[in-house]
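Hi R.,

Here's the chain you asked about this morning:
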Amino acid sequence: MGLTRITDHVHRFEDTCHVYVLHHEHEALLIDFGSGAVLDHLHDLGVERVTDILVTHHHRDQVQGLARAVAAGIRIWVPPVERDLIESVDEHWRTRPLDNDYDVRQDRFSLLEQVPVTGAVAEYRTARHGAFDVHTLPLPGHTVGSVGYLVDLDGRRLAFTGDLVHGEGRLWSLAATQWAYTGFHPNAGMEGAAATVLSCMQLLDHEPEMLLPSHGEPVTDPPASVKRLRGHLQDLIDMRRATPWLPEPLLDSPWKTVTPHLLRNTTSMANSYALLSEHGTALLIDFGFDLTTGLPGGHDRSSRRPLLASIEALRRDHGIDRVEVALPTHYHDDHVAGFNLLREVHGTEIWSPAHIAPVLSAPLRWDLPCLWYDPIPVDRVLADAAPVRWREYEIGVHELPGHTLYAAAYSFTADGRRVIATGDQQNTAWSPDEGVPELLNYQYRNRFRVDDFVRSAELYRTLRPELMISGHWFPYEVTDGYLDMLLRQGEKLARLHREILPREVDFDAEGFGARIAPYRSAVAPGGVVPLRIEVRNPFPTPDRATLRTVLPTGWSAEPPVAEVDLRAGEVREIDVTVCIPDGCPPAERVRLAVDLTVGRMAFGQQAEALVSVR
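And the predicted structure, written out as tokens:
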């Protein structure tokens, strides 16, 4: 262990990883922290106080001494995607699946004990840390959430790159770059390697004069180092592919023309579309996982990362100086993951139909799949079935249940063509001459109802679009034959469900007679949880529903039993308040339920909810 001079105001301390000391007068900023032993050597530089630590990634060799930094009162800033792996890692260790485990990420190379952090670094932006202006750049590769830091100091632009590169064009670990088990994606098992190439290419756009890695010697010729590394990684990636992987188009031309003022992002999952205004601004329809190289294994927060790489191409290639608005076709993570980052970096407003906005803004309340982890505040709530004006466009907003109950279609005219955006409703791939069927993309947990695809087909026939754009498929030229087929298929789907499901009990396609909201909540001992129970009469005649709240011992509900008279097939909401006793010990995901009887038929504990006592 020892200090090595890099520039007049930057020294490297060799520890479990390289710790970089940026010092000015008697204060210092540290990049990564290792074991924390660096604190015992700062007097050699005349440093009396460390103001901040910036972490490049969560791996244990980078951060294992952070408890010492907390004790010293040093501010700790971490990558936003990996924050939970540092300040909430106890929960990660508790819940991380270990049996039949196909998640090959190195997320277990994390702290053994969590430490509190000051906050997350602001990606794509420059912030003041101590005496230094630091620009944070996303650098996925070694981990999904890795970041790097650019600092102009001593007449040079320095890039602190974590483990993105090692020395002159190598990697500290190839195993770390395997984010997913080998599967069917073209880059399966090579997600991190491909991301490393793209991160290196984007890093060079910032023209750093020296790369300072977490392991290995400083890189004094960044272009040459990246060229060497990229060549070898390219060969490794292509060994698993039927066709060569081409990274340049992903960065140079991510947007493909649908019409002159409507573009499709070809690098994202799912598709996002940019509607361009003559005012030099853009509206996005969906914005999920930009510049994806394949989804990593796992489902924790650190496995999913939004990026903004394609936004720069809108400015550079299409004269767009601002993305003003983003619209969701539905709430799923692959369609909305980038919304908050768009707002934070570019000031983008989120406009959402009224029936989708509550799911975006309070995801924990809903018992639904594919929810994004964080609340997405909605700046403007749009009335359903009413057009909204954006710049020179009038955009129709239409409820579009089917793929999910919380979905919308948007109709507008671009360059003289009537367009409808339908999200993931159907796959827009019908080709009867080639024997390719149309997929009606219903998922029961998304809250599909039997007649939803009949309704959507009728909507399309009313709007008469010429072009349909969707979430995971190519734009589709709409014909009368296509619209007729969708109606026939929707009617067939509804008929088959009615032929298969019981006639005497109708809980629609979902199969449940009750739901509880919020599905997840947290409360202190002695607190209360207000619940709203949705109940359905499954019979073709009026009847009385009786709902009994099923609770842990010592808990109570008001009312403990609720009765409501329902018309045939009626759905109604009932409010119940659950009281937690003062002496209730802390517990996670305590289960409660509603036991449902309608008329003389008992359906049992139809709905559950989870309450954490903290």
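The mean pLDDT is 96.

Let me know if you need anything else.
M.
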